[in-house]
Amino acid sequence: MKEKISQLKADLFKAIAHPTRIRILELLKDGELCVCDIFEELNVEQANTSQHLAVLKKQDVLQSRKEGLRVIYSIKYPEIIDLLGIADKILLQQANETMKTFGEIARK
């Protein structure tokens, strides 16, 4: 059972672990957007954007609804935004540690 849970977590992280998908999630953190708005904002072809959206939707990270001919996407679980925020904090801590190390080297 623990192995299955670990695999499910790995699948979730794998779905998120692409720069374009992270950018999509960051675009959607303030609310839902049409796929047309997402691909314009990303400056990526619509087919490529749609593939990334499909990966996130298959993993149940995103949800979508139709509005006429438009498909509107939103983040299904707000905790995903928390996860990205935690990643930002970790990266900032790592950058601070690196700068501190460079400062120590410069003083030598």
From TrEMBL:
SUPFAM superfamilies: Winged helix' DNA-binding domain. Keywords: DNA-binding, Transcription, Transcription regulation. It comes from Desulforamulus profundi. Residues 1-95 form the HTH arsR-type domain. The lineage of its organism: Bacteria, Bacillati, Bacillota, Clostridia, Eubacteriales. GO terms for molecular function: DNA binding; DNA-binding transcription factor activity. It holds the Pfam family HTH_5. This is Regulatory protein ArsR.
